[in-house]
Amino acid sequence: MRLYLASTSPARLSVLSAAGIEPVCFSPEVDEDAEVTAREQQLGRPLTAPELTEYLGRLKAEDVVRRHGAEIDGLVLGGDSAFLLDGEILGKPHQPEVALARAKQHRGQTGVLHSGLWVIDHTGGETRGAAGAVDTAKVTLSADISDAELEAYVATGEPLEFAGGFAIDGLAGAFIERIEGAPSCVIGLSLPTLRGLVRELGHDYTTLWS
């Protein structure tokens, strides 16, 4: 069974590769800010972190099927992540000053990482079904991390493209005091959730192994 990943995220690709899955990657063309704004206007309220991640994962998967469906025979996976700290949804910091401020805010506290996934069954070249789900993991940052350590970490550039601003499988591994939940959920995408969705769509997860 071929898995098509609606993402070019190195983190998501590394999680899948480590799990024995080598996906075909497509870059989705989704204006996330505009889509979220439109959805919230439709609902009349802000999206929660779980709703946000599953919705964006769905849009990415659907976009790839719409534009590349003729090339696809397998399962299409879209995903998104968001970090919730002090009731605020935090995406990728992008800028060093933002990453540093968030790291100082997270220091000594526990945040929640949400990993939303959407899988479309496009076996045989046509859409046969779809399913989505969200997994969560709690991440506690050590309280004794110095400002100098955080500044040095941000200066590496590593945290700029990660939701929450930390990569637990990278340089920040020594700063993470505790994780409650699936490690893959924090790294890039929740493998237990992916397995559940593949089974929900009537397929054997182990057929994804390359």
TL;DR?
The chain is built from seven helices and seven strands. By secondary structure, it is of the alpha/beta class.
What would the keywords be for this entry?
210 residues, alpha/beta, Maf protein, 7-stranded mixed sheet, globular
Your description of this structure?
This protein has 210 residues and is of the alpha/beta class. It has one domain (3-208): Maf protein, CATH 3.90.950. 36% of the residues lie in helices and 24% in strands. The protein contains seven helices and seven strands, in the order βαβααββαββαβαα. The protein has helices spanning 10-18, 32-43, 49-68, 96-106, 147-155, 183-187, 191-200, and strands at 3-5, 24-25, 74-85, 88-90, 110-122, 129-141, 176-180. Strands 1, 2, 3, 4, 5, 6 and 7 form a seven-stranded mixed beta sheet that branches. Strand 1, helix 1 and strand 2 (24-25) form a beta-alpha-beta unit. It is globular, with a radius of gyration of 17 Å. 41% of the residues are buried. The model has no long low-confidence stretch (mean pLDDT 95).
Largest sheet: 7 strands, mixed
Given the helix and strand composition, which structural class is it? alpha/beta
Kindly report the average pLDDT value: 95
CATH architecture heading: Alpha-Beta Complex
Unreliably modeled segments:
none
